[in-house]
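2 proteins. here.
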Amino acid sequence: MKMIKPFLIFTCTLLLISCFGFSSKKQNNSQTAYVPQENTKVAYFASGCFWCVEAIFESVNGVEEAVSGYAGGNTLNPTYEKIGTGKTGHAETVAVYYNPKKVSFETLVKVFFGSHDPTTVNGQHPDYGTQYRSIAFYKTAQEKQTIEKILKTLNNKVYNGKIATEVTKLKRFYRAEDYHQDFEKRNPNQSYVKAVSIPRLNRFKKKFPELLKKESR
């Protein structure tokens, strides 16, 4: 019985710093949907909580916008609450709108692999479940080839064949609820953002300073 109290404290702490610990009832901001430029391309990545992933890609020079959403599953019209059950097949995914004249798809793939632990199965600490799994999506054969080339190199030279990242053709991307968009930027004092998102962003900035926008340095 003496172990119950510490366990409860530990569980509550995890919930406070969990990406899923934020209820849609707490905030319902209306966000204007991003309108891509004429020559803008889009890449899609999943590597844990999309609040973190969105902020990382938005710091990269050549990225015009990053939009949080859901992809990788077969459930129609997924919601944040449904995603949280881990039963939809979808993962928290970010659509990265970028200018190919300023940043290449290959560089974005390197950002993806370099900004999370691709060897973790179904999660990125402190978030675990299929909804947080690592996925590099492709739309064309060339994108698939680029992803697999980089994955193979990293597996051989860095991760000893332990990469768990899925390489999956994008079927459909569902934009997440408005209150998730630019979440880290709009909620810098939220517990998860302070404990997980910002430190993860700062680690990325330190690792890839040459890729950052001037205002993100």
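next one coming up
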Amino acid sequence: MSLTQELLAANQTNRANIPGETLAKMDAATQALLDDHIEDRAPKAGDTLPGFNLPGVDGSKVSLTDALNGKPFGVVTFYRGGWCPYCNIQLAHLQNRLPEIEALNAELIAITPETPDNSLNTKEKHDLSFAVLSDIDNSYARELGMVFALPDSIREIYGQFGLDVAKFNGNDDWELPLPATFVIKADGEILHAFTPADYTKRLDPDVILEVLRKQQVAA
């Protein structure tokens, strides 16, 4: 089952088990992001992804150049947190496809607003062998125009689900990034951008691999 298929199945199951009134509030929050055109403000193919200097799971700062580890290509993906079931599905699929990504001369980098301690928990939980970096206070994602605040209605719902996003992120902002993924060249040029306002959607690894394969042919 592909990532896209598994996400769709998970979403269908979740929607079937969430009360209608709650589901309506969640759908309204997603629609508000779409209406705000947040996707349009995010970086696009042809833009340059700016560099960063973010702490890894051990707290040491890592730059984009460091994270690429000399590779000509990179896959930079943002996930909401280890508390998000859709993120966990995505991370597991990325780990499974990591050998194929690396075979195409690309380095995979995941970025989350969670604190390094919490991102370490996620890394260990899924046995992730790619870099996981913490974007404290969403500073980097904000630079990319991809940050939004969860409305009060969603904070209340998450509280009912037992999710304390503020605790995971180490602040009281209740802000999250779009679950975006960028395939880039080493100089930061964006070859492919996927910046969904709908948190249940992610860029499928099959698409990532297709973009990278085209680069091999072009070379």
